[in-house]
Amino acid sequence: MFKLKTLTQALACTLLLSAGWVQAETPQDFLSSYQAAAKAADTKFQGFSARRGEQFFKTTHGNDWSCASCHTSNPATVGKHASTDKAIDPLAPAANPKRFTNPRKVEKWFKRNCKDVLSRECTALEKGDILTFLMAIQ
Amino acid sequence: MSERILVWDWPTRVFHWSFALSFAGAYLTAESERYRDLHLALGYVFGALILFRLIWGVIGTRYARFSSFSFAPIAVLSYLKSLSQNQAQHFLGHNPAGAIAIFLLLGLGLLISLTGIALEWELGAEDWEELYEETHEWVANFMLLVVFVHIAGVLVSSWLHHENLARAMITGYKQGQASAAIQGRFLWLGVLILIGILVFLVMYLS
C-alpha cells in the first residue's frame, strides 16, 4: 500500500509539473525577479532591506491586520489564522523549504493577503523587502 | 381541465433557494481571509444541502425524484430544438434542460464541497493541496457559469411557456391536471431544514 501511495504521489507531481502548475524555483529566483521589477519601477532603487521588510511585516497599514496577525512576528514558527485559528505552516524558507518554490502559489497568496492587510496589492519593492526579511531568518 | 396544483414540495423549494444563497455567499466571501469563517460556514451548509438533495432525489415526492427527470440525451436535444422552433414541449416537473442543470450543479457542488473540506481539514498528502485549491476555484467558477446559463434557461422557458418558473419554485404551484399534483407538502421537513441551517450558522459564527 505504501508503495502504491508513493507511486500515485509521484505520478500526480509529474502531471502537475508537466502541466506547468508546479514550477520548482528557489527563494533567490523570486528575489531576482522582484529586483528586476523594482528597478524597472524606480531607477533610484537601492536594493532590498530585511529591516524594512520586518517593519512592513509587523505593522498594520491602515487596517486592523498586519502580516504578523496570522504569520506571527516570528515567521519561522507555525502561524495561526486570524479568523479561523487554523494552523499555518511557517513562512520562512529556513523553517519550511516548500515556501517560495511555486510562482503560481506565491503570487496568488501575495495578492490575496496584501489585499487583506493593505487593501491593495504589494509592490515589487515591498515583496522583495518581505522576502529578504524572511530569508534572513534562520 | 387545468388548475393550480402543487408540484414542488417544501423541502425541494427550501433546498433550491438555500443552495443558491449559500453558493452566492460562499463565492462572494472567497477572496478575503477576513470572511473565511463565513465562507466555511456557508460551505458546510452548501455541502449538507447537496447530501440532503441526493437523498430527497430518491425518496422525495414525484417531481423531486431523479427518476422523474432523468432524460435521455436525445430528449434534451429534442426539447432544445422545440424551444428554438417556438413550439416548446411542456413538462410539469423539470424540463430536460433544467434537469441537466440540476445534475451538473449537484455534481460540481459536490466536487467543490469535497475539495474545500480536504483543504480545510488537510486530508491526503501535503502535495495534493495545490490540486485541491486549483480544483476548488476552477470548479466554483465553472459552476457560476452554469448558474448563469440555468437562469437564462429559466427566463427563456418561462417566456416561451407563458409560465413563471421562478415563481413556481417559490410557491410550489403550477397549472396542470388535478391528478398530476403531488400529495405531500412536507412543510415540517422544509421548516426543519431551515431551522437546521440557521442554528448551524449562528452556532458556527458566534
UniProtKB/TrEMBL annotation, chain A:
Q: Does the keyword Heme apply?
A: yes
**Record GO terms (molecular function):** electron transfer activity; heme binding; metal ion binding
The protein's matches in InterPro entries, at most eight in alphabetical order, are given as: Cyt_c-like_dom, Cyt_c-like_dom_sf, DUF1924_SHP
Give start and end of each Cytochrome c domain.
48-138
Record has Iron as a keyword: yes
Q: Which Pfam families match?
A: DUF1924
Q: Which residues form the signal peptide?
A: 1-24
| Keyword vocabulary terms for this entry | Heme, Iron, Metal-binding, Signal
- Supply the name of the protein: Cytochrome c domain-containing protein
Species assigned in the record: Thiothrix eikelboomii
Automatic annotation (TrEMBL), chain B:
Question: Which terms under GO biological process does the entry name?
Answer: respiratory electron transport chain
Cellular component GO terms held in the UniProt record: plasma membrane
Specify the protein's topology with respect to the membrane: Multi-pass membrane protein
**Entry keyword set:** Cell membrane, Membrane, Transmembrane, Transmembrane helix
Q: Which GO terms describe its molecular function?
A: electron transfer activity; heme binding
The listed locations are: Cell membrane
Pfam families registered for this protein in UniProt: Ni_hydr_CYTB
Annotated ranges, domain Cytochrome b561 bacterial/Ni-hydrogenase: 7-172
- Where does the sequence pass through the membrane? 14-30, 37-56, 100-119, 139-160, 186-205
- State what protein this is by name: Cytochrome b
| Taxonomic path | Bacteria, Pseudomonadati, Pseudomonadota, Gammaproteobacteria, Thiotrichales
